[in-house]
Design goal:
heterotrimer; A mainly alpha (about 250); B alpha/beta (about 300); C alpha+beta (about 350); A: about 250 residues; mainly alpha; 11 helices; about 80% helix; globular; C: about 350 residues; alpha+beta; Rossmann fold; OB fold (Dihydrolipoamide Acetyltransferase, E2P); 2 domains; five-stranded antiparallel sheet; 21 strands; elongated
Chain lengths: ~250, ~300, ~350
């Protein structure tokens, strides 16, 4: 039993290595659909190096990254603030809930045509899309987190002399953190997926745009490089928030 | 068989109309039209199509990037691309550098895009400025955009370039001005076909030759035939996004007549020009490295 | 001057509650579940709406919100803040009142000392046992030195051992601090052991307020006596110490041997549930067993009460319905009664205790 536990951390690598091995072999032996010659993993790595060296990947990545950072930060902060207000004051919640419920289910990309007409093609477009994609889920999760804090904690805090605002900041918000972090974690990854899609459709720079260029040139290796970058970024962002969550709530969860 | 939805593939359309494929004993199990060379190229790569009338540049990409085993067996024409502009906004090529110019062009990987770069080279234009003002869209969308006043200039293949003139645009440059001896579209077949059925390939080349000769001799009739074919095909075979645009544009024989005079229909293929093209797009980074033109050419069937 | 007074308190649970609690008194609020005990506490604390008036030291506090009424409230669910460690939980009220760090730490230390939980100061509630949680919750409630302490069933979720222990400590602490306390429970024995006075509440109304034994022996009405459980009370005509902590008493002709340290016993009481009926004479020492005849059988909602005549006395025994059904008892049948020794309550004075 003990030995199994010891082996575990290292073993996570093994399936990945096997997968890469199969990929490499399949590519070299041409086991691929249609008549495309699918690039081997080694080819993809080389292209990765090449694209980094000549700055193309760096530029595209930076464009996408900046958009995600700005859009996501703005959307999260706005969502948090509105979520706290809506979660804490039932009156406001009742007033705004209908509108939020209508807008929340619209997928972020659904806003694209409308925004393209209103904002044109520029930096404002992807940033706004990311803003929308982050704002609603985080608002929802924050409001839910605050609303579902056990009433007893609020009551007890009252008897201990805390004012409403104090209760909000010292009891409700900390206890709502798990919900809030769930929202942040999910949307961080989502933001990346959305930006790629938006770039593929409408915007000439960024990783998504690079993928479209590669598609019309039939450079599958570049497409795969972009996909790897996308996967790594999604993962990193999600992991970052998971880490933050453990840091802030690990002791008492 | 697959063709591009342009008068570049005139010989195919003519042959189809006149039933010359059947005459030579060729039965087409499929006849598909694609709006751009790149779309055709990916269809070629996916596997079902064995014969295509496709612009040279996407054909090279298919071979070099996707590794599809194809061979160019004949040409269809030289030239056949142009830069059309709004004469009020753009008087010279240098005007393209102006900051608020909206320039239309197909996506990277198309012959038109290569022409754009050649233009930049020849006239020493500021590449950064030009690339910043490009809006990427396929030809029918560009023409529609021109009609709605949303573009100031566009690099287009024929017959779309000539169609733009209907909406007040003027042809500022033709491919002849920028790229002498530019190879337009070519007839490609899958290597397997040559190996297993060389007779079929020979028949194909013959039919193409026949159609090309006929088009050169009967320009008036040719334009009517092609117009009819394009109009007929346009309705049913477009993918949704182009269909709407195309539906709003009429392809008349008059337009085609004018358009076809801007191409030089010939089945001849100059290996040096092909090599030059390969080297150039390798320089642009479209393909990873240059290769010998011989690898993609098999001109034994041309007489 | 009474310390807390409730005048004509009514809401959807309570009806016309009038109650006076004296300064430094420990009043036990006793009643079955749903009687309105917690509601009354919430009213005093200012957490729910009500009609009528609550007065602290003669001054009406109805307009004061809960955060300003200066009460310590120990919830039944405890509600320790899960995201704060023990020390921070206890310090919460002090932080909220913006006390200086030094004062705060000193006070927290004192409380940790008093509740004997110094070693827990950095633990989080999720790692505390039931008894430990209770102590922390109490410390937290006492931290701001409230004028009034409200305890809602503080021992109900604990096992016997912990509960016994905590009861003792609680009594010590409360005695030492001398805070006016209202203690809610549904357990008679707790009430008896902790209270200065007991208030019986049933159906949202106060049924009786008196010292516990007064209530026990002289219930006001049927509601109260039903709740208390109609104990068997035997006056002892004669008692004799047999040495080694054993006393023999004679009550109305019944000889009973009881473990007891003193040597004067005036009365004993035994709840009906602590008298067992057996069809046959069970094996073992023939002590504290009596033969008798069943005189009546009265079923209630989930128990059966059986009256048995033993000598000159009638004793009331109670058992669950299905045990009764297994036993095949009828009026007039001869049965054996066994008294559960441990549960015999002994009263040395004429007035109880």
């Amino acid at each position: 039993m003990n030995r199994l536990k010891q082996l575990k951390p290292g073993w996570g690598i093994v399936p990945v290595v096997i997968f890469l091995g199969i990929w490499e072999m399949a590519a070299r032996l041409n086991f691929t659909p249609g008549q495309f010659s699918f690039p081997a993993f080694s080819t993809v790595l080389m292209e990765f190096y090449y694209l980094t060296a000549n700055g193309v990947l760096g530029d595209s990545f930076l464009s996408s990254l900046v958009r995600v950072l700005i859009g996501f930060s703005a959307g999260s902060i706005a969502g948090l603030v509105m979520g706290i207000i809506m979660g804490w004051r039932e009156v406001i919640n009742k007033a705004l809930n209908p509108i939020v419920s209508l807008l929340y289910p619209i997928p972020a990309l659904g806003w694209l045509p409308l925004l393209m007409l209103w904002l044109g093609i520029g930096e404002a477009l992807p940033i706004t899309i990311i803003f929308i994609c982050s704002f609603f889920p985080i608002l929802y999760n924050t409001a839910t987190g605050i609303r579902t804090v056990d009433r007893n904690y609020v009551q007890v805090a009252r008897t201990l002399g805390a004012s409403d605002i104090k209760i909000l900041t010292t009891v409700a918000m900390p206890l709502a953190l798990p919900n809030i972090f769930t929202g942040l974690r999910l949307e961080a990854g989502m933001a990346w997926r959305v930006i790629i899609a938006a770039e593929m459709v409408a915007i000439p720079t960024g990783i998504g745009a690079l993928m479209m260029k590669a598609e019309s040139l039939m450079r599958i290796d570049i497409i795969i490089v972009c996909l790897i970058v996308l996967a790594v970024m999604c993962l990193s962002f999600e992991r970052f928030f998971a880490f933050l969550e453990t840091r802030l709530t690990g002791q008492w969860r | 068989m697959a063709v591009e939805f342009m008068d570049h593939a005139a010989s195919a359309y003519i042959s189809q109309d006149k039933g010359w494929f059947e005459e030579e004993g060729l039965k087409l199990t499929a006849y598909e039209s694609y709006v751009t060379g790149m779309a055709l190229a990916s269809a070629l790569a996916r596997g079902d199509i064995q014969v295509a009338y496709i612009c040279l540049v996407p054909a090279i990409n298919t071979y070099a990037n996707a590794g599809v085993p194809i061979k160019v067996v004949a040409g269809t024409h030289k030239y056949g691309y142009g830069l059309v502009v709004n004469p009020n906004k753009i008087k010279t090529v240098k005007d393209l550098e102006k900051p608020d110019i909206r320039l239309g062009c197909v996506r990277e990987g198309g012959a038109v895009d290569v022409l754009l770069h050649k233009t930049i080279d020849k006239y020493n234009l500021d590449e950064g400025k030009i690339l910043d003002s490009i809006q990427r869209m396929n030809p029918p969308k560009q023409v529609l955009a021109i009609k709605m006043g949303q573009l100031d200039a566009a690099f287009l293949p024929e017959q779309w370039a000539t169609m733009a003139e209907e909406f007040g645009f003027e042809m500022l440059l033709m491919s002849q001005d920028v790229w002498p001896e530019m190879q337009g579209s070519v007839l490609v077949v899958k290597e397997d076909l040559i190996r297993n059925h060389p007779d079929i390939v020979e028949s194909l080349v013959n039919v193409s030759q026949k159609a090309t000769d006929w088009a050169n001799q009967h320009p008036q009739e040719a334009s009517e035939v092609v117009a009819q074919q394009l109009q007929a095909v346009g309705g049913s075979l477009f993918p949704a996004e182009a269909a709407e645009a195309a539906a709003k544009l009429e392809i008349t024989p008059e337009i085609l007549l004018r358009s076809m005079t801007r191409l030089e229909y010939t089945t001849a293929v100059d290996p040096e020009v092909v090599q030059g093209t390969i080297d150039y797009i390798a320089g642009l980074g479209y393909i990873k490295s240059s290769f010998n033109a011989e690898e993609i050419l098999d001109l034994r069937f041309l007489k | 001057m009474p310390s807390i007074e409730l005048r004509n308190i009514s809401n959807y649970v309570c009806h016309d509650v009038n109650l006076k609690i004296f300064d430094k008194e420990l009043l036990v609020l006793l009643g079955p579940n749903g009687a309105g005990k917690t509601t009354l506490l919430n009213i005093i604390a200012g957490l729910i709406d009500y009609q009528g008036s609550v007065l602290f030291d003669g001054k009406a506090v109805d307009k004061l919100p809960a955060s300003k009424r200066r009460i310590g409230y120990l919830f039944q669910e405890l509600a320790l803040f899960p995201h704060l460690d023990v020390a921070s939980n206890i310090a919460y009220s002090l932080k909220v009142q913006k006390q200086s760090q030094n004062e705060l730490e000193a006070r927290v230390d004192k409380l940790l000392q008093m509740m004997k939980i110094n070693h827990l100061s950095h633990r989080y509630p999720k790692n505390l046992s039931g008894g430990e949680k209770q102590r922390v919750a109490l410390a937290r409630a006492l931290a701001p030195a409230p004028d009034v302490l409200l305890l809602d069933e503080p021992l109900s979720s604990l096992d016997m051992q912990t509960s016994k222990y905590l009861k003792m400590e609680l009594k010590q602490v409360l005695n030492k601090l001398g805070i006016t306390t209202i203690y809610v429970t549904h357990d008679l024995i707790e009430a008896e052991e902790m209270a200065d006075r007991t208030a019986i509440i049933q159906g949202g109304r106060i049924q009786q307020v008196a010292a516990p034994l007064e209530v026990f022996f002289h219930p006001n009405n049927d509601l109260v006596s039903d709740f208390i459980g109609a104990p068997n009370i035997l006056n002892c005509d004669y008692c004799r110490s047999l040495g080694q902590g054993i006393v023999e008493v004679n009550c109305n002709g019944l000889k009973i041997i009881i473990p007891h340290d003193g040597d004067v016993i005036h009365r004993i009481a035994l709840l009906p549930g602590d008298i067992y009926i057996s069809n046959t004479n069970p094996p073992g020492p023939q002590m504290n067993r009596f033969k008798g005849l069943i005189t009546s059988i009265k079923p209630t909602s989930n128990t059966t009460r059986v009256e048995v005549k033993v000598g000159k006395r009638i004793l009331l025994a109670e058992m669950s319905r299905h045990i009764f059904e297994d036993m095949d008892l009828v009026v007039g049948k001869e049965v054996f009664l066994i008294l559960k020794l441990k549960r015999i309550r002994v009263y040395e004075n004429k007035n109880g205790r």
